[in-house]
Amino acid sequence: MTMAATSHDTPVETAAPSTRRQPDRTYWLLAPGVLWMLLFLVAPILMMVYVSFWTQTTFKIEPTLTLKSWITFFSSDTYLGALWTTVRIWLIVLVSTLLVGYPAALFVGLFVKNKTLSTALLVLCVIPFWTSFLIRVLAWRPMLGKEGAINMILMKLGIVTQPIEVLLFSELSVIIGMTQIYCVFMVGPIAFMLGRIDPSVIEAAQDLGASFWRIFRTIILPLSMPGVVVGAIFVSVMVLGEFATSAALSGRKVNLLGNIIVTQVGSLKWAFAAVAGVVLTILMGAVVAALLRVVDLRKEL
Amino acid sequence: MNASGIKLGLGLYTTLFIVFLYGPLAVLAILSFQTGPEGGPQFPIIEWSTYWYKHLFGLTPPSRIAPLPIEQALVRSLALAVMTMIVSTVLGVTAAQAFRKRFRGSGVVFYLIVLGMMVPGVLVGLGMALVANTLGVDRHWWGTAFVLHVVYTFPFAFLVMLAIFNRFDPSVEEAAWSLGVTPARTFRKITFPLIFPGVLSAMLFAFTLSYDEFSRTLFASGRDLTLPLAIYGTFSVEVHPNVFAFGVLTTLFSFALLGTYAVLMGLSVRRAKRMAIQEEA
Question: Which CATH number covers residue B100?
């Protein structure tokens, strides 16, 4: 399969002069991987775009091109609501991961001078990724539930007299869960960028009498921006493609575009699922392009 | 400037941050020792017991709580992870090997490969299901789901190998070639031992990512469940502590894997050092 597809752009082996042999070898080495990606990544995505214009009947889709699924999507409150929920949750989680992660990154990247200690702290942050993603999501249930750990502690301390019910199966629980799972993707890149700041720059500012706030605003924050952007890209791509956290923690109250796709596929509404998929792809592309506009990564890294 | 005060404050904050990362997992681990079958997934612990661990392995008398369908699922997940690991690592090594030479269109190829780890599972999974439907191909974990697992893990293997080849001194290979050793033998005797630590890391990445992957699998595997799909299935029903016990066990399994990796890595580093000493002597 591989050979047949690439033979037309690589000259036949016979009497190939030695100067031509090197590029040939490169193409042969690349062919399997590139072909795999074209067949199993690019083709499915193109198929999704194509099917979004197919005709949806009750249980089947037919390759008669129509805009009907698109019109249904943009005139339905459920779908538009899911789009709006996706954007809202994405923005909230993006801000919360940044706010929760930045101070920790500041400590690890800038204040811990000992290299071993800062590596150890980063490893400590990464270890939870070696447990199943779904288990980490599920772990929030006994934490946030009506009889969960947080309510129990709050009641023991006498802060509340009745358990707070809104903690679980609400938008809040989805946001808390996603913040915990994805904030490490903010901490890593930011700590990396902060670690590269030349300490003498900060010392010079201190010697000239700048306050910590001033140093933070004029030196630390601008120099850490590439890290923030890389982290934001990671978090955005993952949060926009989410459906498991909302399925586990919202009790079906939060429907993201990902959840719409899952339910539509479950009821064999392939064309609608494809429309939701294309909308999600466009949204994601726009977000990543906008983030890359903020900082020119090639120049900064 | 009050730097030590700020440092203390940030240090305390980082401690809290780590508690935030580990808290839910700790609570989950504690609750997995809840008594059964009447004990629920919440505090207080009525009585400490290993009931739910026995329940997982079918060692408890039958009760109203159905056992998790993990036995078959575990076999499938492991087989899928091993298949994915082998193919991804081979693809990653060959593609990275190609990138050692500059060639036209390398930028496009690079982004094409990296796209595999960026595109969310929902989208590729849906696309793959649509392709399979149109072609009339049945969806199976060893077919449609497997190729998507490779799409996802191959970029990680590729990036790891790219980093390894960047620090690789090509003159040792050239020396072998100039002595008339065939390229295949050079790769086996010279290149491969040198890049082995990287290959090991690529394998670890591919295995663990595939073992834990579920959004691609959800759409692209047919009726047969893999382990993550079995857990996903419990989301919509009442959760019992047996899921927590399973979470603890699968975490321990991952750590065992990480430990094996560390040991193999340590062995290969030590062997490299020994060889260096022999050369000097």
Answer: 1.10.3720.10
Residues of A with CB below 8 A from B21's CB? 124-125, 128, 180, 184
pLDDT at residue A286 above 50?
Answer: yes
Provide the mean pLDDT of chain A: 86
Q: Are residues B133 and B34 located together in one domain of the fold? A: no
| Percentage of residues in chain A having pLDDT higher than 70 | 90
For helices B3-31 and A171-195, angle between their N-to-C axes, nearest 10 degrees = 130
Q: A-chain residues within 8 Å CB-CB of B208?
A: 130
> How far is the C-alpha of B78 from the C-alpha of B198, rounded, in Å?
22
Of A233, A39, A2, nearest in space to B112 by CA: A39
Question: What's the pLDDT at A260?
Answer: 93
Domain that holds residue B29: 3-56
For A78, which DSSP code? H
Global pTM reads 0.86
Which residue in the set B17, B20, B232 is minimally distant from A244, CB to CB? B232
B145-186 pLDDT tens trace: 999 999 999 999 999 999 888 888 888 888 888 898 888 888
How many Cβ atoms are within 10 Å of B37's Cβ, its own excluded? 17
pLDDT at A11: 42
Residue B276 lies in a domain: no
- In chain A, what residues touch B187 (CB-CB under 8 Å)? none
- pLDDT on residue A276: 94
- In the prediction, which pLDDT does B280 show? 67
Distance CA A238, CA A280 (A): 12
Report the domain count for chain B: 2
Distance of residue A263 Cα from the nearest chain B Cα, in angstroms:
11
Q: Is the pLDDT of residue B2 over 60?
A: no
CA-to-CA distance for A281 and B58, rounded, in angstroms?
44
B221 and B116 part of one domain:
yes
Taking the C-alpha atoms of residue A189 and residue A185, their distance in angstroms, rounded to an integer, is: 7
Mutate to test the interface with A, among B123, B154, B260 (most CBs of A within 10 A): B123
Residue B200 and residue B128 share a domain: yes
Contacts of A22 in chain B (CB under 8 A): 101
- B74 and B173 within one domain: yes
Residue A298 is predicted with a pLDDT of: 64
Domains detected in chain A: 73-131+169-300 (1.10.3720.10)
Q: Over the stretch A9-25, which tens digit does the pLDDT of each residue have?
A: 444 444 434 444 566 78
Q: Test B101 with A103 for CB contact under 8 angstroms.
A: no
- For A183, which residue in chain B has the nearest alpha carbon? B21
Name the minimum distance, in Å, from the CA of B71 to any CA of chain A.
17
Residue partners of A4: CB distance under 8 A and separation at least 6: none
Mean pLDDT to the nearest integer, B93-111: 89
